[in-house]
């Protein structure tokens, strides 16, 4: 199931805050806000939580998609309609890559 595994990996890396995925920017903004407000302990906790999330998600990804396959699941194939998975994965990457181009407009228009 390469499409499902690939889209799952992209979503998990984004949730963990890995660049260039969209989740990176939200985590970065939170950590920078904590750091500039001198809440260093909470910034460190946020970084630590991201690292733990990444470790857990990669372990889960490895066990689910790259582990030894049980014989009763040998015939499982990709779902017939994988377009939503591909679309959402593309959106995660596009938003992550293009966010710096639009961030100044979005962030400063709220102030």
Summarize the structure.
This protein is 75% helix and 0% strand. It has 111 residues and is mostly helical.
Description:
- By secondary structure, this protein is mostly helical.
- Helix content is 75%, strand content 0%.
- The chain has one domain (2-67, 80-109).
- The longest helix is centred in the last third of the chain and has 27 residues, at 83-109.
- The protein has helices at residues 2-16, 22-36, 40-65, 83-109.
- The mean pLDDT is 88.
Average pLDDT confidence is: 88
Judging from the principal axes of the Cα atoms, what is the shape?
Answer: flat
How much helix is in the residues?
A: over 70%
Radius of gyration: 17 Å
Q: What's the total helix number?
A: 4
Quickly list its features:
single chain; mainly alpha; flat
Write the layout of secondary structure elements.
Blueprint: H1 2-16, H2 22-36, H3 40-65, H4 83-109
């Amino acid at each position: 199931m390469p499409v499902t595994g690939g889209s799952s990996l992209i979503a998990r890396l984004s949730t963990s805050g890995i660049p260039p995925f969209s989740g990176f920017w939200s985590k970065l903004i939170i950590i920078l806000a904590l750091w500039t407000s001198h809440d260093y302990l909470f910034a460190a906790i946020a970084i630590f939580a991201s690292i733990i999330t990444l470790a857990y998600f990669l372990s889960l990804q490895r066990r689910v998609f790259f582990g030894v396959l049980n014989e009763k699941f040998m015939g499982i194939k990709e779902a017939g309609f994988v377009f939503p998975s591909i679309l959402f994965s593309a959106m995660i990457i596009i938003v992550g890559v293009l966010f710096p181009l639009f961030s100044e407009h979005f962030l400063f228009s709220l102030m």
